[in-house]
Write a structure and sequence with these properties.
By secondary structure, this protein is an alpha/beta fold. It folds into three domains: 3-101, Winged helix-like DNA-binding domain superfamily/Winged helix DNA-binding domain (Arc Repressor Mutant, subunit A, Orthogonal Bundle), CATH 1.10.10.10; 104-129 and 371-476, Alpha-Beta Complex (Aspartate Aminotransferase, domain 1); 133-369, Type I PLP-dependent aspartate aminotransferase-like (Major domain) (Aspartate Aminotransferase, domain 2), CATH 3.40.640.10. The protein contains 17 helices and 15 strands. The chain has helices at residues 3-14, 24-37, 50-57, 61-73, 104-113, 133-140, 145-148, 159-170, 186-198, 213-221, 238-248, 269-282, 337-351, 356-367, 369-394, 418-427, 458-476; strands at 77-80, 84-87, 120-121, 181-184, 204-209, 225-232, 235-236, 252-255, 286-289, 314-319, 331-334, 408-412, 430-431, 433-434, 449-453. The strands form four sheets. It has an eight-stranded mixed beta sheet with strand order 4-11-10-9-8-5-6-7, sandwiched between helices. A hairpin with a 2-residue loop joins strand 6 and strand 7 (235-236). The two termini are 28 Å apart. GO terms for molecular function: transaminase activity.
Length: 489
């Protein structure tokens, strides 16, 4: 592999490698050894040079040299003059677990699997249950009785929940029937099912730039070829979309109208209507992802599909995870009836059907959705106010735009590549997602950005900003912003 690509992949695979105790070089060696043990690094694979990896990780070259030397002494690495350092061919091959294809998943989700004590992860939105959630669960048990005698699966979802979701859309200006609904294990599965149906290797996909790394991963895993289109304050640039459709005949257009992740932009009504008309005119399918929510705009428009004329192929995805509780893995998709049938077959192959008890709870939550969403929005608006105040106080040179909605700030660092900053922040016990991983563009337009979730409690928000400030001072002590990146030993 090309060494520059290798170092980017390797940094992503390493994730929060510097968290924990012990000498830094041992932590690096342990993390590299783990990547080999889990199959993410294969026998014979070439590693970046000590100098290149040290620069990417923002540590001293001595740290990387010591880690490499330790792994050589254990027979894990081999080095030869002219061919660099490689994973030893003597290491038994292991089937990869899938992380190796792209480093984004490592940044976004690794800490969900591998908890590191003392590390604060700011990679995912924190969604504790809303007050009263436990009572809803208890009340839902009363609805369980009739299902206990059935002993059957519902691959498309419980009929009662599908009707409730159809009513949810109809009440928002998008007439819907239950046959258009497929219930999924969170919005993530819904998007995965859509990508499986529409995409194959080489499929062109129009995506917003920046975009949500987790969903870009799903499409990349199918071999998609991204056609990134920038955003403005009304959403994805419609002229850019038209050019992309004319030039590439995309198999799918992926967009997040309410609200865009990571920028928090809410797409205008005019832009929604233009996209719907474009789908009907050109036959371009649109995947509308509405699962990222939190702070909500008081005049939030109906879903994009509500503005699509007859003949447009729009699939809308949503979830209760960001509104009610992250642990309630109930999402859904709304599609034309014939596409809903085909997607339900994909769902059947994936897991037969979702848990029925969770879906019973979801029926009750949807009956009170507006109140729950309003309360979640109020809590997160207060959290965003607090986070913005802390940043203005301690990091006044940083820039961001108050988002229209969502649960994170899209922060721009003055004069610093966010990949460098995230490595320094790791050494201060804070895990961040650099902006470059939220973009499908090869030119790196967001290298100075990172996404900062606000949904921590007040004490933890104070701690997050304190660690951000320490990491920023770590850079500043070594000269003005824009000077050579300091090394952490």
């Amino acid at each position: 592999m090309d060494s520059s690509r290798t170092v980017d992949d390797l940094v992503g695979l390493l994730g929060a490698w510097s968290a924990g105790d012990g000498a830094l070089y041992r932590r690096l060696a342990d993390s590299l050894r783990t990547l080999i043990d889990e199959g993410s690094l294969a026998p014979g694979e070439r590693l970046p040079s000590e100098r290149v990896l040290a620069s990417a990780l923002r540590v001293s070259r001595t740290t990387v040299v010591s880690a490499y030397d330790l792994l050589r002494s254990e027979g894990v690495f081999d080095s030869r003059q002219g061919s660099g350092t490689r994973v030893s061919e003597r290491v038994a091959p292991v089937r990869s677990d899938g992380w190796a294809a792209n480093g984004v998943g490592q940044y976004m989700y690794r800490n969900l699997i591998q908890k590191d004590a003392g590390l604060i992860s700011a990679t995912c939105m924190n969604t504790p249950a809303m007050p009263g959630f436990a009572e809803v669960v208890r009340e839902s048990l009363d609805d369980l009785g009739p299902l206990l005698d059935e002993g059957t699966y519902y691959p498309q979802g419980l009929p009662a929940l599908r009707r409730a979701i159809a009513d949810f859309y109809s009440d928002r200006g998008l007439p819907t029937v239950a046959d258009q609904i497929v219930v999924t294990t969170g919005a993530h599965q819904a998007i995965a099912l859509v990508t499986q149906l529409y995409l194959r290797k080489g499929s062109p996909v129009v995506v917003e730039d920046p975009g949500f790394a987790g969903c870009l991963d799903l499409m990349s895993d199918r071999g998609a070829r991204f056609v990134p289109v920038p955003l403005d304050d009304q959403g994805i640039d419609i002229n850019g979309v038209r050019r992309a459709v004319d030039e590439h005949a995309p198999h799918l257009l992926y967009t997040m109208p309410s609200y865009h992740n990571p920028t928090g932009t809410m797409m205008s009504v005019a832009r929604r209507r233009e996209l719907g008309e474009l789908s009907a005119r050109t036959g371009t399918p649109i995947l509308e992802d509405a699962a990222y929510t939190g702070v909500r705009h008081p005049q939030e428009p109906p879903p994009l599909a509500a503005y699509a004329p007859r003949g447009a192929e729009v699939i809308s995805v949503d979830s209760l995870s960001k509104v009610a509780w992250a642990g309630l893995r109930v999402g859904w998709l709304r599609a034309p009836v014939e596409m809903a049938v085909r997607l339900s077959r994909r769902k059947l192959l994936a897991d037969l059907a979702g848990p029925q008890l969770d879906q019973i709870v979801a029926v009750r939550l949807l009956a009170d959705y507006d109140r729950i969403a309003r309360e979640r929005s109020e809590r997160l608006a207060a959290a965003m106010d607090h986070m913005e105040g802390l940043l203005r106080r301690d990091l006044p040179d940083w820039r961001w735009r108050r988002p229209d909605g969502g649960a994170a700030l899209w922060v721009e660092l003055p004069g610093i590549d966010s990949r460098a900053f995230t490595q320094v922040a790791l050494c201060h016990g804070l895990e961040l997602v650099p902006g470059s991983l939220m973009s499908a563009s090869p030119i790196g337009p967001f290298d100075r950005h990172f996404r900062l979730p606000v949904a921590f409690d007040a004490v933890e928000r104070e701690e997050v900003v304190w660690r951000l400030s320490r990491a920023w001072r770590e850079l500043d002590r070594h000269g003005p912003v824009g000077a050579p990146i300091p090394l952490v030993v």
